[in-house]
Design a protein that fits this description.
4 helices, Glutaredoxin
Length: 98
C-alpha cells in the first residue's frame, strides 16, 4: 500500500484505470487509456492496475465495477467513476487538474 501512496502523491494528475483482462469493458478501455497517455505526455501519469493482481488495493478503494477510473493529484482523489469513458472526456477532466 505504501507504493500506492508514492504513485499518487505527486504534483501532476494521475489517472488510475482499474481493470481485468476478462472484463470486456475493461479491455475496451485499453486503447482509450493509451490515447489519453499519449495526448498528455509528461503532464500527467496514467497507471493501469490489474484488479486480479492487486486485490487488496482494489478492496481498500472499494472498486466494485469495472473499469473504475480515478484521478488523483497530490495524494488526494479528485474524481472517480466506474464504466467506460471516451478519451476526450478523460483528457478534459485531467486538464482541470494540471
Amino acid at each position: 500500500m505504501s507504493k500506492f501512496g508514492e504513485l499518487i502523491d505527486v504534483s501532476v494528475p494521475v489517472l488510475l484505470d482499474f481493470y481485468t483482462e476478462w472484463n470486456e469493458h475493461s479491455v475496451a478501455m485499453h486503447p482509450v487509456v493509451r490515447e489519453v497517455a499519449a495526448a498528455l505526455g509528461d503532464k500527467a501519469k496514467v497507471i493501469k492496475i490489474d484488479v486480479d493482481k492487486n486485490a487488496p488495493l482494489a478492496e481498500a478503494l472499494r472498486v466494485k465495477g469495472l473499469p473504475t477510473l480515478m484521478i488523483y493529484k497530490g495524494g488526494e482523489m479528485k474524481w472517480r467513476q466506474s464504466g467506460e469513458q471516451d478519451a476526450d472526456t478523460l483528457i478534459g477532466l485531467i486538464k482541470e487538474y494540471l
